[in-house]
Amino acid sequence: MCPPFRGCTLPVLERPPPLCYRSRLVMKLIVLGDIHGNLPALEVALREARAEGYDIICHTGDLVGFAPFPDETVERIKAERIPGVRGNIDDALSGDPDTFASCAVDPEGRAFEEKAYAWTLERTGKLTGHFLGNLPFEQRIDTGGRSAVLVHATPIDVNLCLWENRDEQFFREMGDAAGADIIIFGHTHRAYHRIVDGRHFVNAGSVGYPEDGDRRTGYAVIQTNGNVEVQVQRFPYDTSRLLTAAAARRFPSEATKRFRP
Fold it and tell me: Model's pTM, two decimal places?
């Protein structure tokens, strides 16, 4: 098998087993949205998650890309044994680098993301690329009385944005494709909870690169107790540590504007 980092097609992996087989009716999931190489934000999110407590913790992919700690972020996820899925940037970095396309809606954002991705591509280690490429497309989660699926963007594609204001028919199609009661995802960096035809669509937002006007880190909390309850928790973190590392590592200077509170 050729090295599974740049320019190599990865083998198709079998669907992993559900993350939990327990039949408890009350369960608590903490979902870490797109981390994007922001280690200081991840560390705070993990600290708060431990304090809050959970049955399952997982991530929505895009572990690297827009902040200057790609290898360290992946090592932390591996050390904590946090399961998750493969994001579009993870997919590009580990397969065909030219498939990356910024999802930013403003020209400044696109320019920054393209520079940040190029920096990450140049500096991400081969072991990190191997890990990212072997993340599964989806994870099935057995929450007892509810079935859930974890994906990066939608149940059919890692690049397709599932914005909150999409029409109900689009959500129905995504729900049918998912075949689950709860569809958990990220990609747009904007957290929300929408219910369509009894199915719960939960966008976990972003741990490391939120784009909803609130630059704090955070995560989504999903509790199943017969009903499905969703909360989004937000926490401040040390952005100066990120910006100091960005300058030392010659990360794109636009990071100052994108991350400073």
Answer: 0.90
